[in-house]
Design a protein that fits this description.
This is Energy-coupling factor transporter ATP-binding protein EcfA2. By secondary structure, the chain is α/β, with parallel strands linked by helices. It has 2 domains: 233 residues, P-loop containing nucleotide triphosphate hydrolases (Rossmann fold); 56 residues. The protein is 43% helix and 20% strand. It has 11 helices and 10 strands. The protein has a 6-stranded mixed beta sheet. A 4-stranded antiparallel beta sheet has the order 2-1-4-5. Helix 3 packs parallel to helix 5. 35% of the residues are buried. The structure holds adenosine-5'-triphosphate (ATP). Adenosine-5'-triphosphate binds next to helix 1. The site of adenosine-5'-triphosphate has 11 residues, from helix 1.
Length: 302
């Protein structure tokens, strides 16, 4: 029950542009139960790609299948409705997602819409809020009177409350403070590891997801520049940088360390902590070696 794209193109109906193709010839495969990051420069087509995952956008050409459901112009409304229950999509701007006058109504909307009894939906709302570290006291507040970060968390909670199989999020950490960003990345990783969710995240902050994701899709100009594992991404760093992708410093530093000290065969260290530790080990080993060489040289000549 993977997500597959075959030769997919999508053009917004913008007749003022000579060429309005937002996606062109996309082929990709996302395995169920994996954690995927989508990166790429501004306007490269990341959001457009994401919105194909639950059929909000349908391909202009090519074939998309999500959880065995084909997504095309001819697909019937009930099939699309069912797909939206199974694939939760968090939009780039929370305002696109929230519309009720209280947080509780907003989070309960999806579960109620899919037939959950009210009492159960309210329990779900509390559960989803607690996952995001929000207090129940905000349930009766107007979502549009919350801070930007709280609003974003409510938008995420409204999707998690549906308990979807696939969770697709468009820049979910924008407007969150550093602690909330780290907590959200860890929560998504937990949902992926412990509940087998397929998690897909569009991000401009690759470093936040590096330790967690299985693989990456990198977009450029409506096309996929790269699809592969994090290790492969690290190996392709020079190519991706030449293509204009700003990579996390950890990757750049690791590659320099690996080239300098012959560590290319090792698994890359992708957090500042693990990288610092490995640098210290390497320098210490190099220092010991140099000391021994100096002593030996001294022994020979002294
Ligand atoms: N509603 C729309 N109508 C017409 N063109 C659009 C629309 N939405 C996006 N586009 C165009 O499609 C292309 C891809 O946009 P998209 O938002 O998918 O890129 P993105 O990689 O998510 O960008 P960002 O990182 O800035 O969010 C851009 O050229 C954009 O101008």
């Amino acid at each position: 029950m993977a997500i597959t794209f075959e030769e997919v193109s999508y053009a917004y109906d913008d007749r003022s542009l000579w060429r309005s193709g937002a996606l062109e010839g996309i082929n990709l495969h996302i395995q169920p139960g994996t954690f995927t990051g989508i990166a790429g420069t501004t306007g490269s087509g990341k959001s457009t790609l994401l919105q194909h995952f639950n059929g909000i956008l349908k391909p202009t050409a090519g074939r998309v299948r999500v959880l065995d459901v084909p997504i095309g112009a001819q697909e019937k409304a009930p099939a699309m409705r069912e797909l939206r229950r199974r694939v939760g999509l968090v939009f780039q701007f929370p305002e696109q997602q929230l519309f009720e006058e209280t947080v509780e109504k907003d989070i309960c909307f999806g579960p109620l819409n899919f037939g959950m009894p009210l009492a159960e939906a309210k329990e779900r709302a509390k559960w989803a809020l607690s996952l995001l570290g929000l207090d129940e006291s905000i349930l009766q507040r107007n979502p549009f009177h919350l801070s930007g970060g709280q609003m974003r968390k409510v938008a995420i909670a409204s999707v998690l409350a549906m308990d979807p199989e696939v969770i697709a999020l468009d820049e979910p950490t924008a407007t969150l403070d550093p602690q909330s960003r780290a907590e959200l990345a860890a929560l998504l990783s937990k949902l992926h590891r412990e509940q087998g969710k397929t998690v897909i995240v569009v991000t401009h902050r690759m470093e936040e997801l590096l330790p967690y994701v299985d693989g990456w899709i990198v977009m450029k100009g409506g096309r996929t520049l790269f699809q592969g594992t994090t290790d492969a991404l690290v190996r392709e760093a020079a190519f991706l940088e030449r293509e204009g992708l700003a990579l996390p410093e950890c990757i750049t530093l690791w590659n320099r360390l690996a080239a300098e000290y012959g560590l290319e065969a090792e698994k890359p260290c992708l957090t500042p902590e693990s990288l610092a530790e490995r640098i210290a080990e390497v320098l210490s080993a190099a220092g010991t070696l140099r000391g021994r060489e100096e002593r030996m040289a001294c022994g020979e000549s002294c």
